[in-house]
Amino acid sequence: MQELHDAPLAPLTTFRLGGPADRLVTATSDDEVIAAVREADDSGTPLLLIGGGSNLVVGDKGFAGTALVVATRGFTLDGTLLELAAGEVWSDAVARTVEAGLAGVECLAGIPGSAGATPIQNVGAYGQEVSSTITEVVAYDRTTRERVTLTNEQCAFSYRHSRFKADPERYVVLRVRYRLEDAGGLSAPLKYAETARALGVEPGDRVPLDAARDTVLKLRAGKGMVLDPEDHDTWSAGSFFTNPILTDTAFAAFHARVRERLGDGVLPPAYPAGEGHTKTSAAWLIDKAGFAKGYGTGPARISTKHTLALTNRGAATTEDLLALAREVVAGVHEAFGVTLVNEPVTVGVSL
């Protein structure tokens, strides 16, 4: 294992923000990951796990403890069964499944980060979620101090949530297993209207795998959601807020606020989210509350390509970013009575 002290964390995050860690350890095998976790637990040292750093907001003061970079590698394909080590680069793994002619994660192309993060927040985009393909997650249980294998059902997946996110101090993901589909080189049925429209087909249709992947990459790039060191719109964590899921009562109150503010003819986005619940669009809320693309005058601003991404324009601090996030949250709540929730994990700070 590699070990550094007083090590900068900003270069390990897509925001490029945050102060140093007291100690930075890089583990390249499951055994090294477990050893580092056990050492921290035995000594009572705070532990921060880092994969691709695409979902982290680290405070300017840094992290007083051990930051563990999970840099394990492993891509194993057996028929339609895929196993990934937690440290595998997710976007690269998706590309390899498409090359192998297997469907199920092609619309998750271009999402930054590591494979080990995918089950934690049930990564999803363009009509696909990893919960529909994950069969098992191998993890280290910090409570029992054993390796465990959790089934899909035991992972308790829901929208951008899981057992791992609900109890973040307990499990360290080591490996993720997926069951993909051999559809003769075709994608899974397209569920997202924007993707189908861009491909000139109807929702529910299948298209060649590489066409689906390439289209998603183009759509993501147009919104600044594909990492590019030269493009400050990608110095972000992607979508900074989750789409709110409201009870029927709360949605009715929200709809009334929309009519009052924007007029009777304006209908907010509404998607079924389980019995008695409706999901609406965080991006729509932000825009209609007066926060347009490119909003802000300081070093942290809303992306010029997508209202849901908060960005570091190159010289921001974490406090700059949080000030902007708080302004957006307060503005949306004042306008519509809906409280946005941040999607990235905050370290040493909070909204």
From TrEMBL:
Q: What class of enzyme is it?
A: oxidoreductase
Catalysed reaction equations from the record: UDP-N-acetyl-alpha-D-muramate + NADP(+) = UDP-N-acetyl-3-O-(1-carboxyvinyl)-alpha-D-glucosamine + NADPH + H(+)
Catalytic residue positions: 160, 239, 343
Domain FAD-binding PCMH-type positions: 17-183
Q: Where can this protein be found?
A: Cytoplasm
Needed cofactors? FAD
What are the EC numbers? 1.3.1.98
Q: Identify the keywords attached in UniProt to this record, alphabetized.
A: Cell cycle, Cell division, Cell shape, Cell wall biogenesis/degradation, Cytoplasm, FAD, Flavoprotein, NADP, Oxidoreductase, Peptidoglycan synthesis
GO terms (molecular function) for this protein are:
FAD binding; UDP-N-acetylmuramate dehydrogenase activity
PROSITE patterns hit by this protein: FAD_PCMH
Pathway(s) the chain acts in: Cell wall biogenesis; peptidoglycan biosynthesis
Q: State the protein's purpose.
A: Cell wall formation.
Q: What NCBIfam families has UniProt attached to this entry?
A: murB, PRK13903.1
Family per record: Belongs to the MurB family.
The name this protein goes by in its record = UDP-N-acetylenolpyruvoylglucosamine reductase
UniProt organism field:
Streptomyces griseoviridis
